[in-house]
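fwd from M.: "can u put these together and see what the complex looks like"

so here's what she sent:
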Amino acid sequence: MRGQSRKESLSDSRDLDGSYDQLTGHPPGPTKKALKQRFLKLLPCCGPQALPSVSENSVEDEFELSTVCHRPEGLEQLQEQTKFTRKELQVLYRGFKNECPSGIVNEENFKQIYSQFFPQGDSSTYATFLFNAFDTNHDGSVSFEDFVAGLSVILRGTIDDRLNWAFNLYDLNKDGCITKEEMLDIMKSIYDMMGKYTYPALREEAPREHVESFFQKMDRNKDGVVTVEEFIESCQKDENIMRSMQLFDNVI
Amino acid sequence: MAAGVAAWLPFARAAAIGWMPVANCPMPLAPADKNKRQDELIVLNVSGRRFQTWRTTLERYPDTLLGSTEKEFFFNEDTKEYFFDRDPEVFRCVLNFYRTGKLHYPRYECISAYDDELAFYGILPEIIGDCCYEEYKDRKRENAERLMDDNDSENNQESMPSLSFRQTMWRAFENPHTSTLALVFYYVTGFFIAVSVITNVVETVPCGTVPGSKELPCGERYSVAFFCLDTACVMIFTVEYLLRLFAAPSRYRFIRSVMSIIDVVAIMPYYIGLVMTNNEDVSGAFVTLRVFRVFRIFKFSRHSQGLRILGYTLKSCASELGFLLFSLTMAIIIFATVMFYAEKGSSASKFTSIPASFWYTIVTMTTLGYGDMVPKTIAGKIFGSICSLSGVLVIALPVPVIVSNFSRIYHQNQRADKRRAQKKARLARIRVAKTGSSNAYLHSKRNGLLNEALELMGTPEEEHMGKTASLIESQHHHLLHCLEKTTGLSYLVDDPLLSVRTSTIKNHEFIDEQMFEQNCMESSMQNYPSTRSPSLSSHPGLTTTCCSRRSKKTTHLPNSNLPATRLRSMQELSTIHIQGSEQPSLTTSRSSLNLKADDGLRPNCKTSQITTAIISIPTPPALTPEGESRPPPASPGPNTNIPSIASNVVKVSAL
């Protein structure tokens, strides 16, 4: 019915154990829902129901997502909204469209693309944080406008804009302040990207210690959270940070 | 890192903003983008088809031709594009690789052409995508097998004079067509194998009765005759085995090979029988040993290619055969059990135990149906019918795999044989082409000299006549000429082809011809025991060929394999006489000749530059592999002859 045929080897006995569906290659668990939906559709008594159209791990849903095509706004609007030149926007879009022909990136794709740059470690957590930072309207996907808006701030914005953006990245629940737990999550994700094979070897307490030193530096009033003003102020006082912020001027 | 993702590198670098505020140490400096070019379109012109792509697309793979500075070698300044004189179809795939990161292999493309193109562009074939990789590997394997076949047959047919006796013998054994002796040996052993097998068979036939006793098999009635036959056969086989053992290049490997094991097993029973004829109780064992004599029939596989193919097929289908066996065993056990329990109830049932039911199951599943065991209960009949139906299925499934394997190998063999047969014709054609090109060299030499003559005689408008050779050809000929000068030898060529070409030269040189003839006759009378001079006068039309060239010539290319019978016996001389009437400065000394020729060369750069005079005695020793002992003066010939020709002509030997 679905017209998909996957050639699986005879040696794969998982289908006999019921843990693996020969046709779709997915564990049959989640597709039970799809089967049920199909069965319900067949019954004459049930009218067309509002079946949830977007759900994870369903083949039909994959079909739907892949047929969605998002087109960005025109070049002129983007030029106004961001600080990129026309040519830069063209280059960015070509790269974007190459990896994501449908015009939008979902979290999975995002994580996969980002992980290509860090072959040794596990960059998925940090990629999730990034995704949430780029996805400004929180609709679960990053369109080209979101993408370019974020890049514009980071690469062409003022130092304050950049610091703001970084703060936004750290603030996982977007409540205006960074707690120690949030910072710890961020730190762990950064250390994860390094992978297991480092010199000196990664110690268990390293992220926590790092967080402590960060808070010591940033938290002026020692209230356990870092607000955006404290953050920007502390960063402006730090030479290293200011200099590193200028690295982004020449990325594109 | 995949290609397309390279475009996301700016994003990844931008995302590093999250690390900056938490970093404890200062960041390293960013690499400066020295040639910060805007991304530009570059045009790739491949044999006229223009492809355009961004520069950054190509730079994704910097270790390939297009991604590195190597492509600058192909940049055409006039048209501002990169020109590649290659196949545009394959280039399409190559460019798609840069674009998408996946290399595909088009099915219609020839595998070696594709490999060549990939090698040219510096792309490893290993990165072919999964979708096309299997096809690529299959085709590559087929091609490799074909090449191996060709190489094998080449090696077999090379005449290596330096083979030792042992190696010749081994080759004779492996390939009976190499010599008559090998063929004889081949047929003799074949005959004796047949005799031996037939003897074994006839031995057991009952041969009529001796009155007073029961019917005897022939073996016992004529035991002496059969014994003699057997002895003879075994002797032949033993001798053959020992000879093979002696000749084998690797005796250890030979002993382990299948054929040698068959040989040993075939002759062992006889020797064992010789050793222990007298012992009664082991004679029973000896009788069973005789069964092994039937293995002699496998010796025929050396004689039959089809048998070898069959054996090879079975070996290569071992897994399918194993599967067949396994599934059959499973089915047999299942059905035997079922039949046993189904038939347990009926009285006087033949299904006494499960192993006893095995026989019924096998007979039914293979649809033999002897009928010695038949189910009587209804349940038994039902299960019996299910058994026979499933038997058909189980057997029918792996058989086509085996059949297709056999077919593939068999056809491969057929193709190999066909190729070997076509090889002779191919080699002959290649030889003709080779001689053709060397003929062209000599022809153009003569042309060049003719040009010289015409110029010397002041007929410049006829110059273009001799410019039949293209620039490349003339450069090639110059190269050959330089080689001649370096070694002091010169090429000889087969005449008939040449004469065809020379007849195309126009007749305005006729003036030369007569003088030329005369001088030729003179010189040939002088120096060479030639009987050919009279023949020249009968061919006035041919301008550049001398009398002596009328005779049979042979090809003496350094690499030629022509048999000794075609070696010329006479020295050949072909001379072109350039009438140097208005150039009295022409002397006969070689050095001045050279000088003159050089002078003449400069204004005549455009024409063939083969103008220096050579009179070389042909057949220099190096060129005749057949080793006719030419007199040593042959090589310093060019120098010695000239003084002897005291005439006012520059004789140039266009060899």
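replying to her w this: The longest helix of chain B spans residues 399-456.
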